[in-house]
Amino acid sequence: MSDKIAKLSIGNDSWELPIQTGVIGPDVIDIASMYKQTGKFTYDPGFTSTASCESKITYIDGDLGTLLYRGYPIEQLAEHGDFLETCYLLLYGELPTPAQKTDFDLRVTRHTMLHEQMQTLYRGFRRDAHPMAIMVGVVGALSAFYHDSTDISDPHQRMIASLRMVAKMPTIAAMAYKYSIGQPFVYPKNEMDYASNFLNMCFAVPAEQYKVNPVLARAMDRIFTLHADHEQNASTSTVRLAGSSGANPFACIAAGIACLWGPAHGGANEAALNMLHEIGSVENIPEYIRRAKDKNDPFRLMGFGHRVYKNYDPRARIMQKTCHEVLNELGIKDDPALEVAMELEKIALNDEYFVSKKLYPNIDFYSGITLRALGFPAEMFTVLFSVARTVGWIAQWKEMVEDPSQKIGRPRQLYTGSDKRDYVTIGQR
Ligand code: CMC
């Protein structure tokens, strides 16, 4: 707490509100006592100026284009570490020693299997169900299968639930995919690393040998690392809000998955790839740029712009590199979507409209092309995002539950509906 004070005056009255200073980032005016003091609420739809919590996990500087997990730049973690190391870091706050890493990998690996009865649950879905619909349902249902890790007041149960979520999400996601294409489920193989195991569960079939390509597994692992956390975004805030009532972690993560599904959030990579296909070739780009700039046209360049980044999204740079690595490995020389993406990026980055509004490519701009090259259909893109983000959701949920000052989240409103009025019986209306 700093000794800086903000002064609020309304008419002849004035009040003092404390200002809190974080390690980095803007100071915050602490308005927790404001209603008591002034009888007034603040109004900030979309939380554009409101810090909803205190957190020690992830920091973004949107102007500089910086993303830090527990202080470590995303570029360094993606380049030198693996996803499970990032999971450890997010959950425990420090990078693991070699012994801690081995132990953590083993503990996650031991939880990869799913209760066998859950297969029946999958079979209840229509074959053409969107895999995200299956994810919301199946993850929510975990609390019906793992009763022994739903007591959130028990630190041991919280940790077991956390490990279970990180370990089982790839299995759940791969099963959603297999179900949607009518192939048999593939069980996890614990001698494989996290990303290879996931690719194997998605692409292996009992009829023939499937060998995971290590370059593609490394790319998958990096994609997981890039998406692992992103501080108080919409789905994470949803998880925190759901968890603030004391709901069990599986139910909270299911709420996060539901929020992630939207096209302005996790659905953007699917939308970005569809857009690149729709543009089709480089000659059509100017027409789409014109439409994106037209106030009367709802069209937006998908994969461009971000609520927080007003600079190049640091994840987008790594994603672009990963995209090239995957296409090279697979010998895809002329991918029309990649060609359109590169040209569109070049044009938009030099266009006054995008420059003045600080609209840069975000992570989703190149992730769709990469995921499709890895063999995933577009409906699976957001599912993969949810697999990766689970550790962030869980780390944020744990941080909230373990904070002694935590309260149920309960925003206020500016009411603009009818004033009080008397009920009119149906025959008299
Ligand atoms: N194309 C064209 N114009 C845009 C775009 C875009 N992609 N994004 C923002 N703008 C314009 C917008 O019209 C507005 O103009 P004006 O000030 O003249 O009204 C201005 O830029 C500010 O936009 P905003 O909607 O107020 O900004 P926001 O912070 O509320 O929205 C966003 C952020 C990500 C929802 C938005 O940029 C967008 O819709 N982008 C496309 C979808 C997308 O790529 N989403 C992925 C986000 S990254 C992954 C994740 O977090 O899940």
Give a written overview of the molecule:
- By secondary structure, the protein is mostly helical.
- 50% of the residues lie in helices and 6% in strands.
- The protein is built from 18 helices and six strands.
- It has helices at 34-38, 74-80, 83-92, 98-109, 118-123, 131-145, 155-181, 194-203, 214-226, 234-243, 249-260, 268-279, 285-293, 314-329, 336-349, 352-356, 364-374, 381-401, and strands at 5-10, 13-20, 28-29, 58-61, 66-69, 72-73.
- The chain has a three-stranded antiparallel sheet with strand order 1-2-3.
- α6 packs antiparallel against α7 and α7 (155-181) runs parallel beside α8.
- The longest helix is centred in the middle third of the chain and has 27 residues, at 155-181.
- The termini are far apart.
- The model has no long low-confidence stretch (mean pLDDT 94).
- The structure holds carboxymethyl coenzyme *A (CMC).
- Residues 233, 264-266, 268, 292, 300-307, 357, 359, 362-364 line the site of carboxymethyl coenzyme *A.
